């Protein structure tokens, strides 16, 4: 499975791999032996064959990385679907300590990140013809983020949108809330610097360490780890 190791300059030590999946459109991916029964059911709920194939590729990539780390064959990695269908390890079934991990994808690319020290959230994005980034920014950015965004034009504005979006997504994934909070209350910033960001949740404010990166192919990556 084609992949490259990424070096992400983040305050907490990470291991990261970027996968590029083949654009297969045929086959019966729900029968893939690497999938659990719950994952096979998830595949069958997807409407389009392209999405089914991508889902299988992504799960195989995740199982390959975790299996290498845990000393298990990929199909034997005890993954289960948690909150918001987020994959998680059944640690009770493991003999060795399990790393924290997170995964993100953009079209035919997947990013898998492991972290031993803290919960981690990642997001990866690239150009994909967003319908109306100005409207999305107005609905999801803080006033300071909107001001900085509106001061830019053209390609710079689109890049700024993707940078803020990935940073917010990584923060939410690190604290495990999904999109359950008001993104306008979460200031991640347009900058690429590494900073501590307070994330508002129902359980109170949770701080994360947030950083931005670039990956081959012009992909933008954001990583957040719990403090």
TrEMBL record:
Statement: the UniProt record of this protein carries the keyword Aminoacyl-tRNA synthetase: no
Keywords: Transferase
4'-phosphopantetheinyl transferase domain segment(s): 120-189
Similarity comment: Belongs to the P-Pant transferase superfamily. Gsp/Sfp/HetI/AcpT family.
Species this protein is from: Hydrogenophaga crocea
SUPFAM superfamilies: 4'-phosphopantetheinyl transferase (SSF56214)
Any Gene Ontology biological process: lysine biosynthetic process via aminoadipic acid
Family annotation (InterPro entries): 4-PPantetheinyl_Trfase_dom, 4-PPantetheinyl_Trfase_dom_sf, P-Pant_transferase_sf
Molecular functions (GO terms): holo-[acyl-carrier-protein] synthase activity; magnesium ion binding
Recorded superkingdom: Bacteria
Name of the protein described by the UniProt record: 4'-phosphopantetheinyl transferase superfamily protein
Gene Ontology, cellular component aspect: cytosol
């Amino acid at each position: 499975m084609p992949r490259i190791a990424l070096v992400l300059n983040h305050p907490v030590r990470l291991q990261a791999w970027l996968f590029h999946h083949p654009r297969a459109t045929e086959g019966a991916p729900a029968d893939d032996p690497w999938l659990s029964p719950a994952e096979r059911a998830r595949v069958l709920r997807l409407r389009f064959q392209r999405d089914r194939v991508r889902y299988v590729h992504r799960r195989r990539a995740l199982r390959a990385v975790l299996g290498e780390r845990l000393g298990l064959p990929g199909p034997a990695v005890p993954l289960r679907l948690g909150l918001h269908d987020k994959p998680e390890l059944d640690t009770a079934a493991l003999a060795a300590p399990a790393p924290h991990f997170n995964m993100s994808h953009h079209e035919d690319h997947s990013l898998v990140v492991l972290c031993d020290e803290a919960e981690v959230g990642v997001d990866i994005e690239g150009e994909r013809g967003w319908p109306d980034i100005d409207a999305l920014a107005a609905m999801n950015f803080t006033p300071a983020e909107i001001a900085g965004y509106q001061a830019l034009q053209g390609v710079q504005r689109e890049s700024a949108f993707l940078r803020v979006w990935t940073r917010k997504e990584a923060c939410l994934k690190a604290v495990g809330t999904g999109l359950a909070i008001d993104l306008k209350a979460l200031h991640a910033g347009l900058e690429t610097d590494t900073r501590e960001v307070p994330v508002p949740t129902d359980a109170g404010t949770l701080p994360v360490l947030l950083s931005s990166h670039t990956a081959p192919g012009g992909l933008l990556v954001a990583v957040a780890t719990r403090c």
